Amino acid sequence: MPVLCLDIGGTEIKAMLKGEGFEKDLPNFPSKAGTNAPDIKEDVLKLIKDLNPEYKVEGVAISTAGMVDYKTGIIAGHGPTFKNYKGFDWKKELRDALNIPAVVENDVKAAAMGELSYGAGKGYNSAFVLTVGTGIGGALILDGKIHRGASGHAGEIGYMPFETDKFEALASTSVLVKKAQTLYPDKNLNNGKEIFHALDKSDPDAIKLVDDMTKILARGIANIMLIVNPEVIIIGGGISEQKEKFLDPIIEKIRALVPENIFASTEIKATALGNKSGLYGAYSLFEKSNE
């Protein structure tokens, strides 16, 4: 049965149609999250209407930024890039409009399930997935399932406190770029790609920026390893594609922070599905909801 999979972010929405033995990438489209997030619904309904003559969409699987009440699917909270999203009920809206089922999950938790089902986490029973981007998100997988904790939001490591600030306020990609622009305004360091390009040219300022970032990330990941000791840690976000300049230094710094037996028991790798992890994860959760 064709399922429309959506990954809702603050600036754009990724889309894919998927069924058993069937997959079709759809064009990304702009997100209305920053003006009025509930208006996204109208774009989704129009997309389904456009698809239906050929594909007959029978369900919607949503990966979304923000906190999601896993019991109800209602948005429980969100960051400043979304407006008026708290309390929005995707399941009810789609049921009332089209009488079709939906699943809704936080984007990082969905990405974790995507990697576990189809990507870098396949074959593992325990994993911790973190994404490094505008902020830092996390999700814990135990016994092949999302571990949610008492409030339903276990894994929110972006809020983990350090001496001077929370984890994501010190080591996210957005913070790296902001720091580069503040400290070196005369240099062309306006995004992660430009910073790593400068790193390739042995720019000492770029080297220090990335070294500081990877030190903090290594410390946060080391804490996760000491507490959870998962079989694998999977790092996502566009910056994770920089293996030799980003992932490898993190791994070496972690080695110095944890006992050797703990370090040796956990594999650390980048996501395999890239920016489609959330789409695959949402589909996986939809399938599980219909078993």
From TrEMBL:
Alphabetical list of InterPro entries matching this protein: ATPase_NBD, ROK
Pfam family, one: ROK
Membership in a protein family: Belongs to the ROK (NagC/XylR) family.
Record's protein name: ROK family protein
